[in-house]
Every structure is written in C-alpha cells, then in structure tokens.
Amino acid sequence: MDEIKANGGPSEKLVLVPYGVPCRSQAEIEGVMVQRRLSERRPLRVLFVGEVGYRKGCMDLLTVASSLPNSDFEFRAAGRLALTSHHAESFKSQIRWLGHLSPGELINEYSNADIFLLPSYLEGSATVAYEALSWGLPTITTHSSGTVVQDGISGFVGEAGNVNFLIASLQKLFEQKEMRIKMAENAWLRSLEFSLENYGSRLLETLRLSFGDG
C-alpha cells in the first residue's frame, strides 16, 4: 500500500484489509508455552517459513546465523529452496533446511520454535507471519513484509536489509527472558484480531462502504 502511494497511486481509493488465519485456543497456546519453558536448556530455536530465496531475505538470514553462536541459537528453515547451488550449500551449512513440509509437520515446527524470523524484502502481507503470531511466537520481520506485528510489543520490525537490526533483536530476546515470554503472549493476543471471522467482517464492511448496501 505504501509502495502504491509512493508511486503516485490514488491513496483515496486504497483500503487495507489484513488477512485472517485460524486462531489457536488459549488452552493450546498455554500448553505450547509450558513446553517451551521446559526446553529452555537447548538453544533458542529460530524458525523461518517460506521460499528459501533472495526476495525473502534468506542471504540476510544466513549472515545472521553465521554471526551468532550455535550454543545460543538454532536456525531452521522450511520451504522450497530457490538459491544458486553455491549459496544453497552455504545456507545449509549454517541453517537446518527442512524442505517443503506438510501442514502437520509445519504445525510441529511452529509449536516447537521460540522465535520467528522473516527478513523479507518484498511481500503483500506474509501469511506466515500471521501464523507465527497465532502460535505465540515473537516475530522479527521487516516493514517490507506487510506485517501486522507491533514493533516492541509482539516482536520487532525494522528495515529490509538491516542485518544489524536482526542480530540485535535476536540478542535481546535471548538475553531478556521475561521480554521473550511477554512478547509470546502478546503475539497470540495480536493474532486474535486476525481470525478468519474477523477477516470476513472487515472485508464485508469494506465492500459495504465502497459499494453500498444495494
């Protein structure tokens, strides 16, 4: 939407209607949170989901993973590999590439992760970020991802290509356990605003305002 405005698009005709995703129940999320706390002796698990390619910022993800100690962080990436063979080998040397996952396998990754990282350079509004919030994952992403993450509340949002921002955000979540727990709670609460039901209501209201009741 910002890009359309910046290129002279008719801002008065634009309406932003965020997506909706299935929400997790409070009981389900509480169980996930307990399991994460029982797993605190292992490195923090940082999850990426999406096409493992350049547009999604995966070279920045590689730089981040190479810059942080393996004793503190474990990086995992799920999705189709779309890098040159040279870059793919470098990526797989630092990050556990999971390939394309089934819905059930993906649920397992979300529920066992601690942090979600999406350093994308170009999106409409990345569905995976909505999904990560619904699993109570503090989400580190970019303004270019079209995110609904609240900076400093349910995660951190910075500029695409700013690797230092990505590293600093991860270090904060590693060093400040209470912040990480609070952001996880806020992430799930934020996701409730973007349920499928709320998406339907927002879309119908936008259509009504645009075209009338007739």
Fill in the keyword field for this structure.
214 residues; 8 strands; 6-stranded parallel sheet; Rossmann fold; alpha/beta; two-stranded parallel ribbon; 15% strand
How would you sum up this structure, described in words?
It is a single chain. By secondary structure, the protein is of the alpha/beta class. The chain has a single domain, classed as 3-Layer(aba) Sandwich (Rossmann fold). Helix content is 47%, strand content 15%. It contains 9 helices and 8 strands. Helix 3 packs parallel to helix 4, helix 3 packs across helix 7 and helix 6 crosses helix 8. The longest helix has 16 residues, at 177-192.
Write the topology of this structure.
Blueprint: H1 2-6, H2 26-38, E1 44-49, E2 52-53, H3 58-67, E3 73-78, E4 81-82, H4 85-94, E5 96-99, H5 103-112, E6 115-118, H6 127-134, E7 139-142, E8 155-158, H7 163-175, H8 177-192, H9 196-211
Parallel strand pairs: 1-3, 1-6, 2-4, 3-5, 6-7, 7-8
Helix pairs in contact: 3-4, 3-7, 6-8
The biggest beta sheet is recorded as: 6 strands, parallel
Model regions low in confidence, pLDDT < 50 over at least 5 residues: none
According to CATH, what is the class? Alpha Beta
Ends apart, CA distance between termini: 28 Å
Number of helices: 9
Strand order, sheet with most strands: 5-3-1-6-7-8
SSE pattern: HHEEHEEHEHEHEEHHH
The CATH fourth-level homologous superfamily: Glycogen Phosphorylase B
Which second-level CATH architecture applies? 3-Layer(aba) Sandwich
CA-atom Rg in angstroms: 18 Å
Percentage of residues in helical conformation: 40-55%
Counting DSSP E segments of at least 2 residues, the number of strands comes to 8
